[in-house]
Amino acid sequence: AAGVIQSPRHLIKEKRETATLKCYPIPRHDTVYWYQQGPGQDPQFLISFYEKMQSDKGSIPDRFSAQQFSDYHSELNMSSLELGDSALYFCASSNTREKRQQYFGPGTRLTVT
Amino acid sequence: GNSVTQMEGPVTLSEEAFLTINCTYTATGYPSLFWYVQYPGEGLQLLLKATKADDKGSNKGFEATYRKETTSFHLEKGSVQVSDSAVYFCALSDPPSGGSNYKLTFGKGTLLTVNP
Hints:
The structure holds 2 protein chains of 2 kinds. Chain A is mostly beta strands.
């Protein structure tokens, strides 16, 4: 079965650079969630999109922005990167019928040096 | 707001021992409850879930029962294996009434190590 795809899997950036993380949800899933997991921490909700519209916002810094495109893939854009942004970034998707069931991608590990 | 509290680890057991990881929650509505597992260097995998009171989720020998009266969702397994070594996260989703966002709120995670 198709799963959530995230790219890249690993990314190394320097401070003050920008990064773009991509998420391709499971086909026919209409909702995408982004989570950030710092080292040794629990995942924290950043932002979500339903039918290409932002549906909720969590602890996402103003330096980050995200969107969902017409093909339902989503991108998380991160600017002016800081050392503290180093984390594992997960994308999850769900569909209308199974809203409470989220399927997670493998994550993108971002390292800021 | 919503919150999840799970027992702090690390938990170290011998193979075939009984496992319990406690999880309690606070929510304003009627949440769904989940256990996710994260193996070293990997992403989050759904282990089991329960969507209403008294539901029992089960998978791969793990079980958890949704107890509304004690707001708990403790994870249990009768006989752990070395391959169960991982971090376990308890989580809930509790959208506002009429809302459509089912974001997850996670506990801090419990590291389980099973020795042969």
